[in-house]
């Protein structure tokens, strides 16, 4: 992985994001990734459709996807890999973050 890239997408994640953008029904600049205070460990990842780019967003173009990284999140997610995992009981985006020092038991939140 290129250490200058704040986040990388697996092929599965890129395909899932493309499908979500196609189903949205209106044009999007891309997907915005952030973190917010939540859960027992302190922070959780957020994903939302981005209608416009903020002047402070960090822009990452990968596999045909535009990722906008909230400036408040950049230092927490630098070097993260975003994947899409489908299992019997659940499916969803998984973030493999080398900055994490711990994660809560339910997997909802992390701390750095």
- N/C terminus separation: 20 Å
Q: How many structural domains in the coordinates?
A: 1
Helix % is: 10-25%
Structural class by helix and strand composition? alpha/beta
Report the biggest beta sheet as strand number plus sense, adding barrel if it closes: 4 strands, mixed
Envelope shape:
globular
Element-by-element helix/strand order: EHEEEEHEEEE
* CATH superfamily heading: HesB-like domain
What's the CATH topology name? Hypothetical Protein Aq_1857, Chain: A
Beta percentage is: 35-45%
Mean pLDDT across every amino acid position: 85
Structure description:
The chain is globular and about 35 Å long. Strand 4 and strand 5 form a beta hairpin. The protein has helices at 11-24, 74-77, and strands at residues 7-9, 30-38, 42-50, 58-62, 65-69, 80-86, 91-96, 102-103, 110-111. The chain has one domain: Hypothetical Protein Aq_1857, Chain: A (Sandwich), CATH 2.60.300. The strands form three sheets. A four-stranded mixed β-sheet has the order 3-2-5-4. A three-stranded mixed β-sheet has the order 1-6-7. With 112 residues, the protein is α/β, with parallel strands linked by helices.
